[in-house]
Structure formats: C-alpha cells, structure tokens
Design brief:
Layout: E1 2-6, E2 12-19, E3 23-29, E4 32-38, E5 46-52, E6 56-57, H1 61-68, E7 80-91, E8 94-103, E9 106-121, E10 127-138, E11 157-171
Antiparallel strand pairs: 1-4, 1-11, 2-3, 2-11, 3-6, 4-5, 5-7, 7-8, 8-9, 9-10, 10-11
Length: 175
C-alpha cells in the first residue's frame, strides 16, 4: 500500500447545522491530519483521520469558544475528533466510506458518500487524489446535547449535522 497525506492547502473539512430552525451555520476545522494507505483500487484503502477541536472556526469567536467548552465538545478533556474507515463500498462511480467516528468518548458507525476523482499528477510531478465526502450525523448521538428553547417554539440548534470535506491527497515519495 502507498502512503498518502492531506494537502492542507487544497483541503477543507467542514460542517453545517441549523440555527434557529431556518438558517445554517457553517464551521470548519483548520488543524487536522490523516494516515492513509491507498493503491489504485480505492475500495482497498485504509483511512484514519483526526481533527483538533481547538481549531474549530465558525467566523464567530464567542461561538467557537462555546463549541470548545464542556457544553459541546469539551476540548480540554476530548481534544480530537477521530474517524477510522472499516469498509469502502463501490457504487458505480461513487463510493461509500463506512467507519467509526469518535466524538468525546462516544464511537458510532457512520457512512460518508464519496466522489473519487482518480489519480492525477500535478505540474510538479506529485501524484494526487481528490475526494469529496458528505454525510450527516445526529449530534445528540455523540453527547452534544446543549440547546435552548426559542420563545416562538422550536430550538436554537438543530440535531442533524451535515458533514462535508473537499480533500486533496498527495502520495508520499519513498526517500
């Protein structure tokens, strides 16, 4: 198996969740890493991913700090979110990456719908792979239960979190 790393200058790891039941708030993780083994057949790949909670960015410092607090991710006690693939299924030109997601001390299986662009070589001779991943989780399944009732009915924060990632991988050359 060939080893790959994330090209962080061409990658975006994010999420969105309903706010006040009618708009979405988007967020991103700016510090993440992955251990990836991949040959030409994507279904044989092994993926392990980790995002640092303290790198969360929603374009609002107060909200970011609240998300890092014990009300949500509790970054002091649980500094990372982790994902490890257990199986990759091919569905025509698309794939499903099935794996275990760990947030706080809760691990649950999730499925990420994946578009795989294939192998390409950039102008500098680096072999690259592009992936577009989407999925969704219920945040309460992972112990992220904070919420507030609205005077007009409903709640401040939706339970369903949409995950999205545009990832560019670069093959590690043997020295």
């Amino acid at each position: 198996m060939k080893k790959w790393t994330i090209d962080t200058t061409h990658t975006e790891i994010g999420f969105k969740v309903k706010h006040m039941m009618f708009t979405n708030v988007k967020g991103f993780f700016n510090d993440y890493s992955a251990d990836i083994e991949l040959n030409n057949n994507f279904t044989d790949a092994n993926l392990a991913f980790q995002a640092q909670i303290n790198s969360i960015f929603t374009n609002n410092a107060d909200r970011d700090n609240h998300l890092k607090s014990a009300d949500f991710f509790d970054a002091d006690q649980y500094p990372t979110i982790n994902f490890k693939s257990t199986k990759i299924e091919e569905h025509g030109s698309e794939y499903k990456i099935i794996g275990d997601l760990t947030i706080k001390d809760v691990t649950k299986p999730i499925t990420l719908n994946t578009e795989f662009s294939g192998l390409m070589t950039d102008p500098w001779g680096n072999t690259k792979v592009g992936l577009n991943l989407t999925g969704k989780i219920n945040r309460k399944d992972f112990g992220l239960t904070y919420n507030a009732a609205l005077e007009t009915g409903g709640v401040l924060i939706g339970e369903e979190v949409h995950l999205h990632a545009e990832i560019q991988l670069v093959e590690q050359k043997l020295s």
